[in-house]
Design a protein that fits this description.
By secondary structure, this protein is of the alpha/beta class. The protein has a domain at 2-181 and 232-261: NAD(P)-binding Rossmann-like Domain (Rossmann fold, 3-Layer(aba) Sandwich), CATH 3.40.50.720. Helix content is 41%, strand content 18%. It has 11 helices and 14 strands. The strands form 4 sheets. Strands 3-2-1-4-5-6-11 form a 7-stranded parallel β-sheet, sandwiched between helices. Strands 12-9-14 form a 3-stranded mixed β-sheet. Strands 7-10 form a two-stranded parallel sheet. The longest helix is centred in the N-terminal third of the chain and has 22 residues, at 93-114. The radius of gyration is 19 Å and the shape is globular. It binds nicotinamide-adenine-dinucleotide (NAD) and uridine-diphosphate-N-acetylglucosamine. Uridine-diphosphate-N-acetylglucosamine binds at residues 86, 124-126, 149, 178, 197-199, 202, 214-217, 228, 230, 268, 291, 293-294.
Length: 336
């Protein structure tokens, strides 16, 4: 009995593989390595002392996906594989829709034909668009603002329709807030290609001397210090949320939607200060214009996940900064 992890070589998938192996699940990874390295899988094996069955394959390759199901006794799927860069999705919408949506359709069709109907999907807080109020609960209106976000919303709806048509499906839609940090071993972590889009990888690259300074995108938001507020969650806590979701849907059919966040908001400058306190490294920064499409404040109401999954994020901002820094210091060029 194995769990298939699509995108298991990527940032969140690799951390979730570690949790699965620690809990004695058998793990099969399918990843085309378009945004990841096979070294992540080697290191997962070194950290856990267990093996991962790896298929370097594309979800768009139906025969390859079918082979993975034929060759393994898969009982459930954690579906991380997808493209995730917002700016790129605006420039290449068809590429995003095809990869994320067609890939999910092929996965679900194969699952259905093999009688595997247990699926955890990586959704995002981006589905809430510009929230009317914070903290954001799962009932808040949705409305993504870019093609990447729309792939998440569309896939959520496809999966609800799938359950509507066949109530045997057991589906969890996990809406992540802002995952940061790394495994405490410092051996796996986030390895962005080129200029990082997200805040924490940018901070750690400045701290390690790869970049001069952080550009803070705007200090005129309606927030206490004027910089954007987000709900940063340690990737290990996020990974644990997937195991809890898997247990939940093993126990009951249906489609469950959960926010995975801490419930606390930190501004950009809060993170710069927390990084200094945690690591002793001062990150120089400059205030620049707002980034188009950014919102002022976004943080979760995570109470449903606590109530129904018995899950809550445990790690602190300090842990997140220390662990992100350990990964960056030990791997200044990521997996290269
Ligand atoms: P990632 O890019 O590190 O991992 C995604 C993995 O999927 C990569 O290893 C990539 O090679 C693989 N992949 C992409 N398309 C594929 C395809 N067609 N076939 C096979 N493999 C494919 O990203 P991540 O940060 O680990 O994110 C995982 C999931 O969580 C994504 O679906 C992402 O949209 C979602 N998510 C991420 C964040 C975040 O901030 N990181 C926030 C919300 C949601
Ligand atoms: C980004 C994505 C969003 C995705 C989320 C989690 C965009 C427009 N949005 O959002 O779809 O769901 O990540 O992966 O890319 N910041 C700086 N300087 C930087 C980088 C970021 O000041 O160099 C600020 C941002 O303005 C924001 C905060 O830091 O206020 C966090 O930014 P980021 O890490 O990119 O996450 P999100 O904006 O939440």
């Amino acid at each position: 009995m194995a769990i298939l992890v699509t995108g298991g070589a990527g940032y969140i998938g690799s951390h979730t593989c570690i949790q699965l192996l620690k809990e004695n699940y058998e793990v099969v990874v399918l990843d085309n390595l378009s945004n990841s390295s096979p070294k992540a899988l080697q290191r997962i094996e070194e950290i856990t002392g267990k093996t991962v069955m790896f298929y370097q394959a594309d979800l768009l390759d139906r025969q390859a996906v079918e082979r993975v199901f034929e060759e393994n006794n898969i009982t459930g799927v954690l579906h991380f594989a997808g493209l995730k860069a917002v700016g790129e999705s605006v420039e290449k919408p068809l590429y995003y829709y095809h990869n994320n949506i067609t890939g999910t359709l092929i996965l679900c069709e194969t699952m259905r034909s093999c009688g595997v109907k247990t699926l955890v999907f990586s959704s995002s807080a981006t589905v809430y668009g510009t929230p009317e109020r914070v903290p954001i609960s799962e009932e808040a209106p949705t409305g993504a603002a870019n093609p990447y976000g729309r792939t998440k919303l569309m896939i959520e709806e496809i999966l609800r329709d799938l359950h509507q048509a066949d109530s045997d499906w057991r589906i969890a839609l996990l809406r992540y807030f802002n995952p940061i940090g790394a495994d405490e071993s410092g051996r796996i972590g986030e390895d962005p290609t080129g200029l990082p889009n997200n805040l924490m990888p940018f901070i750690t690259q400045v701290a390690v001397g790869k970049r001069d300074k952080l550009m803070v995108f705007g200090d005129d938001y309606d927030t206490p210090d004027g910089t954007g507020i987000r709900d940063y969650i340690h990737v290990t806590d996020l990974a644990e949320g997937h195991l809890k979701a898997l247990e939940k849907i093993a126990a009951e059919t249906g489609v469950k939607t959960y926010n995975l966040g801490t419930g606390f908001g930190y501004s950009v400058l809060d993170i710069v200060h927390a990084f200094l306190e945690a690591t002793g490294v001062q990150v120089p920064y400059e205030i620049t214009d707002r980034r188009p499409g950014d919102i002022a404040s976004c943080y979760a109401d995570p109470s449903l996940a606590e109530k129904e999954l018995g899950w809550r994020a445990k790690k602190t901002i300090r842990d997140m900064c220390c662990d992100a820094w350990r990964w960056q210091q030990h791997n200044p060029n990521g997996y290269q």
